[in-house]
Design a protein that fits this description.
Length: 407
């Protein structure tokens, strides 16, 4: 039975990890940064040396194609990272796909349709959530591009220009759905379930939808020493009350797997002797059922308004982004399970609590995802890791699923 070369895949993963490497473990390789562009250049060389036809589209998506004609079966992930992230998130899916196509080409396996590995741009959403795959799927709003910024204020148009791209041309990356037969993505689970159950392969049933909102409470700045406690209009206290109440609400009124997080808190004027006049929270909610997600979003907004009204404060709710839930295609799920069975590997059907490019591809083609266990469920941190045997198993399931999809 055809197998990938783990030493070769391990070599590639080690090489890619050098771009944007931190002084300790992990990497910082945001989209369009010098480290990311160096990684892209390296990847293009690897694709060419593997006998693939490399290309880059106007949205910065990087492709390596094997075979001619359409429709094509796509497989890959992304090579950008979160700040101080791990070396497998995204990178594994791209380099395992490269190794699969390299293995297929070397074996001379017959192909009834073309295959292509892809590295999508800005999956981590430094400037725009799932930017590259959103553009490819025709879901990019061109009118919003000039206003897209990173958390530090850097504009997307400037970051892409520095890397040699024109951001305003990114919508031209939209693909004809008739030209894409299927999409398959290998990824670390980023959670604890596969490891806890001792199951080597996860078959993703669906990817959660995500709502990101900025909730801004507006109070009044008063002297922190002379203003009586009962007279204060403290924006931070309203924000703190809301964060706790919203968490309890999502737990109580969600599906049991609904989650929310407050990852950014800003307090102004931000000094010890002035009552906070303004407090902004960046809230994220995730849920696989779109109806439940929409309801929780509306209910949390109403909760924020009630808290502000009771405390005599103003509140503004800004909708930052909306990613709808996506179901993976039954045909691709079945092909993954059949490939795993051929390799005598157990599988578990499961949802993905993290967003992935596959959710955008699911809008235009048959999409699927393969998960492998993450050690300790750790991800988005420097010590993110998966066992090399787990990586090998996942890459071989990817290989044989691809062969089924092109047979």
């Amino acid at each position: 039975m055809l197998k990938i070369s783990l030493p070769r895949l391990r070599r590639d993963l080690t090489a890619l990890a050098r771009f944007g490497s931190n002084p300790g473990p992990g990497v910082t390789r945001p989209a369009w940064s010098p480290a990311h562009e160096e990684a892209r250049a390296w990847l293009l060389v690897q694709m060419k040396e593997a006998g693939l036809e490399p290309s880059v589209d106007p949205a910065g998506n990087t492709f390596g194609r094997l075979g001619d004609g359409e429709p094509v079966v796509l497989t890959g992930s992304h090579i950008d990272s979160v700040p101080e992230g791990g070396t497998l998130d995204g990178a594994l899916g791209v380099l395992a796909a490269l190794e699969c196509l390299r293995t297929i080409r070397e074996a001379g396996a017959p192909l009834t349709r073309a295959l292509a590995v892809v590295a999508w741009s800005d999956e981590e959403g430094r400037y725009g959530s799932l930017f590259g795959s959103r553009a490819f799927a025709g879901q990019l709003d061109a009118a919003k591009i000039p206003g897209m910024r990173a958390p530090d204020g850097e504009r997307l148009v400037e970051a892409m220009a520095r890397a040699g791209f024109n951001a305003l041309e990114a919508p031209r990356a939209a693909a004809d759905p008739r030209g894409v037969a299927a999409y398959l993505e290998l990824h670390i689970e980023q959670g604890p379930h596969l490891e806890a159950k001792g199951i080597p392969i996860g078959v993703v049933e669906g990817i959660v939808g995500i709502r990101r909102n900025r909730i801004v409470f507006q109070g009044e700045p008063d002297h922190a020493g002379t203003t009586p406690m009962a007279r204060r209009k403290d924006a931070f206290l309203a924000a703190a009350e809301y964060a706790l109440a919203a968490r309890q609400h999502v737990v109580r009124r969600g599906s049991g797997r609904s989650v929310t997080n407050f990852g950014v808190v800003e307090v102004k004027p931000g000094v010890t002797n002035i009552v906070p006049a303004r407090a902004a929270l960046l809230q994220e909610m995730r849920e696989l059922d779109g109806r439940i997600l929409g309801r929780l979003d509306r209910e949390c907004a109403a909760l924020a308004r009630r808290i502000a009204r009771r405390r005599g404060l103003g509140v503004a709710i800004e909708r930052i982004s909306r990613n709808e839930p996506a179901r993976m295609h039954p045909e691709v799920q079945g092909a993954i399970e059949a490939a795993a069975a051929d390799l005598r590997l157990r599988t578990l059907r499961m949802p993905s609590g993290a967003g992935h490019d596959a959710q955008n591809l699911a809008r235009i083609t048959k999409a699927g995802m393969i998960f492998i266990p993450s050690k300790g469920g750790r991800s988005h941190r420097p010590d993110e890791a998966s066992d090399w045997r787990a990586i090998e198993r996942g890459a071989n399931v990817l290989l044989h699923t691809l062969l089924k999809l092109v047979s």
